[in-house]
Each structure stands twice: as C-alpha cells, then as structure tokens.
Amino acid sequence: MSFGIEIFDAVGNTLYSSADSSWNLIGSFNAPANTNTSFTCPVYPERIVSRLMLNQLSGDDEAFVHEYTLASNSSTLYVTAPSSTETVETQFLVFGR
Amino acid sequence: MTFGIQVKNDNGQLLIDSELSHYHFIGKYTSYNTTQIPDLLNGPGIVSFGPNQNKDMTGMPAKGTIYKYTIPSNGVKPPMVFIKNTTDNYMAVIVTNKVGSNWDTWVFSSGTGTAPTVYAFGPRNQFASSPSGFGLETYNAAGDPTFDSNLKPLRVIGGGNITAPTSAHTGSFGGVYIASLGVNVNDSSSTFNSSANEDDIIYYCPSIAHACHQYEYQQSDSGISKWQSYAWSRGDLWWCFYRSGFKITSGSGNTKYLKSNYGVYARGHVWQHVANSSSIFVGLILGAITGGAYFAIALAAIVATGAFTTSGVASGGYLPYANGSRDSSLPNTYILTRASYYD
What we know:
Chain A is an all-beta fold. Chain A has strands at about 5-10, 15, 25-30, 35-40, 45-55, 65-70, 75-80, 90-95. In chain A, strands 3-8-5 form a three-stranded antiparallel sheet, with no helix packed on it. A three-stranded antiparallel sheet of chain A has the order 4-7-6, with no helix packed on it. A two-stranded antiparallel sheet of chain A has the order 1-2.
C-alpha cells in the first residue's frame, strides 16, 4: 500500500483500510413524521442517500417514506413528507465519495 | 480545517474526518423470535343455501417470515443492520423501533427457513464502552468520540441504488372463489462488481416499498326449490399485503447482482354468506365488507382470539389501501460490506 491508511489489530488483522472504503458516511439525520425539513451535509463529488422507516409497527399505515432532494454542489438535503398524516419518521444516511 | 484529523485517499476523497460520526461494528446477532402475521380469516361456516367452497385460504400464496433482533445502541441514531442472506429469499429490514437503550429490528423474508445472521453498526458515541485510550481515536469539537480503530469501523466495499418492482402482482387477481394474488412480477436488479464470494457479502438496504392487492367476488340467487322460496348472497374479499426485500446473486466473473422483489407480509380472507327468505341482502354484502362494516366485525373477532398477541405483532387489518403500492418508485440505496471482516 503506497497511500491511504490501514489500521491493524494486535494480531495483524486489518481493522480499517482506506483501500476498500468506497463510500463514507457523511451524514445521519432523522426526519420527523409528517414533516418537511432540511439538513446540512458535506459536498462530495458523488453522494447517495439511504432511507430507513423508524418506529413504524402498525400494518394499517399507508406508510409513506420521506422524499428528498440533494442537488450537486449543495450542502442542503431537503426532505419532504408526501403525506401530512401517513409519512413515517425516516432516518437518512448520506454517503459520499 | 483548523482542528481535528482528516484522512484522504490519493484522489482527495475524504475517508476519515473527526467531525463525522463514523459507524463501528456493534456485533453479530441471531434472531430472538420468529413469527408471521396471523392469517386474517373470518366468516360464517356452512350455510344452507349457496356455495360453501373455499371458506379458508385455498389458493392464497404462502406468507413470508418475520425475524426479530434486538441491537444495543443507546441513542437516537438507529443502527445500520446488514443482512447475511444465504438463501434464495428476498430479505430486508422492515421495522426499526427504539426500546429502551436497544433498537428492536425486524427482518422480513419472502420465504421460510433459518433466520439470517445480522451485523450491526452504530456511531461510536452510542456504544456502552468508553474509548480505550489506544489505537486511532478521533473526537469532534464537542469532545464526542467519532472514530475508534478498536471497534472495527465500517468498511464499505460498494453501494448503489435499486428500485423495487412497481407492484407485486400483475394480471388477473382471481376467478370465482379462488384468488390469484401470488407475487408474479420480475425482479428488479442492480449490478456491482466484487471479487468476494456472494455468501460473504452482506447488505444494508431497508425495505421502503410495499404493495396491496385484493380480489373481490360476489354471487347471489333466489327462487323456489322443493316448494320453498329461498334467497342467498355471498361476498368475499381476499387480500395480500406485500413488503419488498433483496438478495444477492452472482453472474459471470466478479459480476454480482442485488435483486429486489416482494414477499407476502400478511394475507386475509373475509366473507359474509347469508341465506334468507328475503332478498334484502342481495347486492349489499360485498359493499358492506369492502366498506368496513363486516370487515370491522371480522377483525374484532380475530383480535379476540389473541392471534396478534400470540404472534407478537400489532393488531390490524393489514389492508391499508386498495390495489396499489407505496414508495415503490423511490430508489433504495444499498451499502455493502463483507461478513468476514467482522467474523
């Protein structure tokens, strides 16, 4: 390895290597249910955004998940609730590289 | 940057930043409970006039399985739960719910069989243990630990986006007293390259898409038989509630695919069947079922049996909307790593 960083444990196992970390977590945000909001995250050349429904247990919910907009070169993640009553709390994880 | 640490690769991409809350390996977990949504089945038995066939689940597709896990991570950030799916079933996290200092996490599988092992990751400041004082540790401006080499930081080997199929079923929903509601759509797929064995690749890709389909049928008749007037009416409602899931398959060389499709999360069949010398019920029954009158009675009867409590799931009709889907046009971001990094 001629560049980057590798971290090993006491017996030589690799714990972390920049060589295989293709995406890095650069933001973690929780959007409240039924609410439009925005979050700030670093600008990276390439970003992807993961969504996770939170605290959603009932099978009778229509259960919309928040939608989002994250424009290139923008540090603002806009999230919108498609339903004002049936949008669940959503966790957003933003990964960049 | 005026303080802290940043590590970049040769392309200038940021790999470690003390201001970012990196996720670390919490542990590997097996499920503490396996369950299914109970069948929502209710209606009268044999009635003297009219058809009595299929007052059960005949012809309905099999349900998938719910596996429950509890993940310790004491904070508002839910853990990233990666699934080691070595089956042909589609699997995904469908429920993430904070209970005390743990996160209750449900994985839904489109089939049955052994529960998958899950690998959980969370931010350093939600670990019970304090930093050890050796290795590489970083802190943000507030003094919270953000990276700790002693806790196996998440090593992402790949990622991308995949969108679930538009819906779970296309074509006819059934005929007469047999519903046809099985998943029959093609997988959607996302391609990635990895030299790792497909069984070693674990994925984080929570389910967000779901779908409902229902089939309705009604018959009625009246007349004179054996010198006696009769009238009967029967109306049936069958439905399935589906959740999306994922699996990894291999192509040629290092080509791998993350595939998405649906499994049957819940299913139901509610009917009403009356025989009466009056024809007053004719034409009303199906509307009363789909409009909620009989449906509510049927649901109350199922709740009274304790089936939901026994199964450890919330009670409900599991029919949140008529034919359609939700969130199925939205991309699911998936993140990949290797189980062997943490075994």
